[in-house]
C-alpha cells in the first residue's frame, strides 16, 4: 500500500525520527517485573517507559523507541539501544551471539556503576526474557536452563524465539 502522507508527516511518525512510536496494536505492553537474580535489574515491556519508576536510572531498549520515549531524566550515557530483531530466522540477526553477549555485558557494566536498569522490548515475550536469562547465566552464575525457567516464571507470557534459545544454549 502506498503511503500518501507528506514526507514531513511520514518523517514525524516513523523510526528513527519520530518522538514516540505507537505500539498500541501490539497487545499487552504492561509487563514489568524484577529480575529473579538481580534486584537492580527490571524486565519489562515498552509501556512502562511512560511511567518509569524513579529508581530506574538506566534503560536498555531491545526494540525501536521514539526519540523522546525514554524519559529525559535518563542520561544519554545510560541509554542503550540494541538492534535485536525478534525473528527466528538466523538471517534476521546474523551476529546474534555477539549481540546478546555484548548486551548482557553492558547491563553488567551499568550494574557495576550502581545503576538500576530496565531491560525492555515491546511485550517482554521473546527478546527481554532471552536477554534476562543470559544475563543471569553469564553474570550471576545461574545455569542457563534454570535462568530460563526463573525468568519465564516471573514473565509468564515469555516465549523466546527459537533462534534466541539456540544462541542461549550455545553459550551455556
Automatic annotation (TrEMBL):
Can you give the residue ranges of the Tyrosine specific protein phosphatases domain?
Answer: 101-151
Organism listed in the record: Cryobacterium cryoconiti
Q: Would you tell me the protein name for this molecule?
A: Tyrosine specific protein phosphatases domain-containing protein
Q: Where is the signal peptide?
A: none
Q: Which PROSITE patterns match?
A: TYR_PHOSPHATASE_2
Amino acid at each position: 500500500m502506498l503511503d500518501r502522507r507528506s514526507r514531513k508527516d511520514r518523517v514525524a511518525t516513523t523510526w528513527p525520527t519520530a518522538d514516540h512510536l505507537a505500539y498500541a496494536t501490539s497487545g499487552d505492553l504492561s509487563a514489568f517485573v524484577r529480575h529473579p537474580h538481580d534486584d537492580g535489574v527490571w524486565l519489562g515491556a515498552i509501556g512502562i517507559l511512560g511511567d518509569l519508576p524513579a529508581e530506574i536510572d538506566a534503560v536498555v531498549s531491545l526494540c525501536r523507541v521514539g526519540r523522546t520515549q525514554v524519559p529525559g531524566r535518563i542520561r544519554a550515557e545510560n541509554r542503550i539501544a540494541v538492534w535485536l530483531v525478534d525473528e527466528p530466522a538466523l538471517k534476521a540477526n546474523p551476529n546474534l551471539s555477539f549481540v546478546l553477549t555484548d548486551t548482557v555485558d553492558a547491563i553488567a557494566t551499568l550494574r557495576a556503576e550502581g545503576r538500576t536498569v530496565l531491560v525492555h522490548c515491546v511485550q517482554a515475550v521473546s527478546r527481554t526474557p532471552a536477554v534476562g536469562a543470559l544475563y543471569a547465566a553469564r553474570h550471576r552464575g545461574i545455569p542457563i536452563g534454570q535462568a530460563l525457567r526463573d525468568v519465564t516464571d516471573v514473565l509468564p507470557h515469555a516465549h523466546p524465539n527459537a533462534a534466541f534459545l539456540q544462541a542461549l544454549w550455545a553459550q551455556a
